[in-house]
Specification:
Strand 3 and strand 4 form a beta hairpin. The protein is of the alpha+beta class. It starts with 7 loop residues before the first strand and ends in a 15-residue tail after the last strand. Helix content is about 20%, strand content about 25%. The protein is elongated and about 95 Å long. It folds into three domains: about 110 residues, PDZ domain (Pdz3 Domain, Roll), CATH 2.30.42; about 80 residues, SH3 Domains (SH3 type barrels), CATH 2.30.30; about 240 residues, P-loop containing nucleotide triphosphate hydrolases (Rossmann fold, 3-Layer(aba) Sandwich), CATH 3.40.50.300. About 30% of the residues are buried. The longest helix has 18 residues. Bound molecules: adenosine-5'-triphosphate (ATP). Adenosine-5'-triphosphate (ATP) binds next to helix 4, strand 22 and helix 10. InterPro entries: GK/Ca_channel_bsu, Guanylate_kin-like_dom, Guanylate_kinase_CS, MAGUK, P-loop_NTPase, PDZ, PDZ_sf, SH3-like_dom_sf.
Length: about 475
């Protein structure tokens, strides 16, 4: 070869090629640049690369290589490479929109003539990144005008587990959906980009998030079929839960060791949505497997009640000492009596090797969101208003206005409150929710919840926040 020119010929070496094609014999010499001829054998699978026109030079360049795609697996085409020809067709005067169909229609041997981006060594794709996330929002690239290449996008639903394989670009990450047979990555908005969009949305719509703990009847102490709770001051020992934009939650696979307690199940939702009913029915369906906490109260014990069964009956002084000592997850006062759920009562149920079902205010979730409890937070949300009206037409709820009547039917205002309260909870605490159950038709909601909770016991691995899987032990000092 004449000096100063270095026409190189590369062929794909990886196993996706059924057979290597013969090398092209009409390679023209280029005067200045180092030209690379790449011959790939292309099946139905797309090349897995995006192209764009370089603004300054006007050249067609490879914009992005999708991890796991044919181009990536070949290790021969790189981001920044200038595309001169595809199967002998000059790219110079073509737009990216004209080139894409040429590439898509190519079958079998496809020859690319490229000017390689300087400084890139020929290498196969790096080891896969082991970064897994749970998506906290739905994404459809077909509806996203901002995505640089719609065909390269990966759509997903809230709750899907994604493996992030490339974060080199600040705005568009590459990811695969866990469990998909297709290992080719697609483009998804980066965390940064999603946060930016969400903050713009908030400015445009003017949504601000009301504090949790909106109208809600006092549920503490409602066990089995008994009810008797009316509106009360209800306090959570730990306020908090700053608004977070739902983007991605880093997760890790988890398989329960049989010596460990079962994961706590926290039911969260707006007042009247059906948390108590779902909890009660789960308990009835399998009382050996599910358990609920016994609350504390300062009210007088009734004749038929037994201490430690319906309630732990304690004095006001003891209860207030327990408040000071942070023994309660939640407590409240109703008609001059305290009611509260202690942390110890949760430990007790878990200690019996049962799944502890607890319905709490969303701001209490934070306190239980620990390695010890590994809670599965179930958000129970109302259906659309028409279905809500229809499904609740015979239902009653605890009266909060009229003290002479214990129960009342749902009003239109109750439905609207329920829906807006659910939206606010989802906006503020959605990042903590692992499951979402829409409680329209009760039987359907109950069956879905039971099936999902069974999966928690049987499906391995489960995906839990990555910080719960670190094995750093606290309080491990020992006296010697
Ligand atoms: N899917 C449903 N269809 C019809 N009625 C329902 C449904 N879910 C719950 N209910 C009824 O709605 C009423 C309120 O439900 P429940 O007491 O379980 O709500 P809650 O979420 O615990 O509310 P609160 O926080 O006010 O105690 C009950 O009478 C219950 O039987």
């Amino acid at each position: 070869q004449p000096s100063g020119r270095s026409n190189q010929i590369f062929v794909a070496q990886k196993g996706y090629d059924p057979e290597l094609p013969p090398l092209p014999d009409n390679i023209e010499e280029e005067d200045e640049d180092s030209v690379k001829i790449i011959s790939l054998f292309k099946s139905q699978e797309p090349l897995g690369a995006t192209i764009k026109r370089d603004e300054s030079t006007g050249a067609i360049v490879v914009a992005r290589i999708m991890r796991g795609g044919a181009a990536d697996r070949s290790g021969l085409i790189h981001e920044g490479d200038e595309l001169r020809e595809v199967n002998g067709v000059q790219m110079e005067d073509k737009t990216p929109e004209e080139i894409i169909p040429i590439m898509a229609q190519s079958q079998g041997e496809v020859t690319f003539k490229v000017i390689p981006v300087p400084g890139i060594k020929e290498e196969l794709s790096a080891n896969e990144t082991m970064l897994f996330v749970r998506s906290l929002f739905d994404y459809n690239p077909e509806e996203d005008p901002a995505i640089p290449c719609r065909q390269a996008g990966l759509g997903f639903k809230r709750g899907d587990i994604l493996q992030i394989v490339n974060q080199e670009d600040d705005t568009w990450w590459q990811a695969c959906r866990h469990g998909d047979s297709n290992s080719r990555a697609g483009l998804i908005p980066s965390r940064q980009l999603q946060e930016r969009w969400a903050s713009i949305d908030r400015c445009v719509t003017g949504i601000s998030f009301p504090a949790a703990g909106l109208r809600r009847s006092f549920r503490l102490g409602r066990r089995g079929g008994r009810s008797g709770n009316v509106e009360s001051k209800r306090k959570s020992q730990e306020m908090g839960g700053a608004t977070q934009t739902p983007t991605y939650l880093e997760v890790a696979p988890y398989c329960r060791d049989h010596k460990e307690g079962r994961r706590l199940v926290l039911l969260v939702g707006p007042s009247g949505v059906g948390l108590s009913e779902l909890k009660r029915r789960l308990l009835l369906s399998d009382p050996d497997h599910y358990g609920v906490t016994v609350p504390h109260t300062t009210r007088e014990k009734r004749k038929q009640e037994k201490d430690g069964v319906e309630y732990h009956f304690v004095s006001r002084q003891t209860f207030e000492m327990d408040i000071v000592n942070h023994k309660f997850l939640e407590y409240g006062e109703h008609r001059g009596n305290y009611y509260g759920t202690s942390l110890e009562s949760v430990h007790k149920v878990i200690g019996e090797d049962k799944v502890c079902l607890l319905d709490v205010q969303p701001n209490t979730v934070q306190r239980l969101h620990t390695t010890e409890f590994k809670p599965c937070v179930v958000f129970v949300k109302p259906p659309l208003i028409q279905e809500l009206r229809f499904s609740r037409r015979k239902a009653t709820l605890i009266s909060t206005q009229d003290m002479t009547k214990l129960t009342k039917t749902f009003s239109e205002e109750d439905f609207e409150d329920m829906i807006s309260s659910a939206e606010a909870m989802d906006s503020q605490y959605g990042h903590l929710f692992e499951m979402v159950v829409v409680n329209g038709d009760f039987a359907m909601a109950f069956n879905k919840l039971r099936a999902e909770l069974e999966k928690l016991e049987t499906e391995a691995p489960q995906w839990i926040p990555v910080e719960w899987t670190s094995h750093t032990k606290q309080n491990t000092e020992s006296v010697c």
